[in-house]
Amino acid sequence: MTERISPVREALKVTGRLLASGRIPGQLIVQYTDRCNATCPQCGMRVGNDFTRTTLAEQRVAEMIRHAAQQGVAALSFTGGEPFLCLDEICRLATLAGDQQIRYIRTGTNGYLFRNAERADFADRMKALADKLAATPLRNIWVSIDSSDVATHEQMRGLPGVIKGVEKALPIFAERGVYLSANLGINRYFTGRDKDREQLDYPFFRGGFDRFYRFVADLGFTIANVCYPMHGDDNSNQAVYAATASDRVVYFSAEEKLNLFQALSDAIPAHREKIRIFTPRCSLHALLQQYRGHEELTTPCRGGRDYFFVDSRTGHSYPCGYRGEEDLGRFEEMPSQPCGVAQPCRRCDWECFRDPTELFSPLIDLRTAPGRLARRLWKDRDFYRLWREDLRYYRACDFFDGRRNLNPETLRPWRNPVLP
Ligand code: SF4
Ligand code: SF4
């Protein structure tokens, strides 16, 4: 296990390094496997899709991790496919990453191991699983939740009974100091209502997000995140990450996205005392500015500069999961400043890269582009108001440390008196 230091001290260290170097802490997302056992209609890796499946070699990923640590990568995610199909390997690699001083290590699951909650061995299975994860430096472990309607979620995933199991497993994990995160990939069915409505409006999304946050908090989650839709009107990119399927269930028009982002931003304050909500409202504000045509009031994504994606099929790295036409070769051989990939990019809304980009943007601009900082400060004061608020909230949430419980004392000031 790595030494656990205070999240505030860690944040101050990160800020100091950022101001000294002008580079933000690097992020690497490794798609360890594209094997999966779920049936999600929104995803090209669903079990029924016929293609040759690939899993990276553990030794190669170990080399990537050592290289990443040397390059200043601070955040490492193991994604899939279904990462828990390779749980032993991922636990060993997470331990290696922790030994290499990478602090923000994440993985997740579709929750298939939480099925069969009615069986006599369920509690023992969950204790063994939680003990295994608790012994690693994994900081955050997400469980995908597609809908606040149980039947809709389980039908989409093809995992009957999984929600009951998640609800029973959460306290067992919490006893061992592991606080799982609920992760919603926004889709047209996420409310479980009005599934086939043509045009989704603001009340649809607002009611849907309110229900989602209440649903996952009632299940016992203490952290929630949402993944923004990857696809919109511009589908010109060749996505390398097959989780970016273009099925209608994850397609939203630009007008629907405006409703979606505004409703999400408005819903968050009503729930953030009860559950730690990772989504930064300053990033939602920037995306709204972009969709309203004010791209200059947003920050180009750090994908291809400080953030990279490794694809399980080729074993190569890319600027992100979206820019599949820009193969950067083996990550472990990549120089710290790869050539030709640093052009400003705002082509998608991938929250893994867009959210931290906006969160760090005032600090990057202070160091490297003070003129841009001053212009944005002048033209868009709301962004900085929300940014300061996000930082205060992140601090109240222990920077979403999934190895610490939610602290009701620090979250009390965030109570919203008018809960819907
Ligand atoms: S979204 Fe995840 S769980 Fe669902 S099919 Fe794709 S990889 Fe599997
Ligand atoms: S905005 Fe970021 S994640 Fe999206 S295509 Fe561009 S670099 Fe990739």
Describe this structure in words.
This protein has 13 helices and 9 strands. By secondary structure, it is of the alpha/beta class. The chain has a single domain, classed as TIM Barrel (Alpha-Beta Barrel). Strands 7-6-5-4-3-2-1-8-9 form a 9-stranded mixed sheet, sandwiched between helices. Helix 3 links the parallel strand 2 (73-79) and strand 3. Helix 2 (58-70) packs parallel to helix 3 (87-99) and helix 9 (281-291) runs antiparallel to helix 12. The protein is globular. Residues 232-236 have low confidence and may be disordered. The structure holds iron/sulfur cluster (SF4) (2 copies). One iron/sulfur cluster binds at residues 36, 38, 40, 43, 45-46, 80-82, 110, 243.
Give a list of the ligands: iron/sulfur cluster
Average pLDDT, rounded to a whole number, is: 91
Q: What CATH first level would be assigned?
A: Alpha Beta
The side-by-side strand order for the widest beta sheet comes to: 7-6-5-4-3-2-1-8-9
Radius of gyration: 20 Å
> In DSSP terms, counting alpha (H) and pi (I) runs of 4 or more, how many helices?
13
* Biggest sheet statistics: 9 strands, mixed
Q: What pattern of helices and strands is seen along the backbone? A: HEHEHEHEHHEHEHEHEEHHHH
Assigned CATH architecture: Alpha-Beta Barrel
Amount of beta strand = 5-15%
The percentage helix is 25-40%
Briefly note the structural class of the backbone.
alpha/beta
Q: Give the CA-based shape.
A: globular
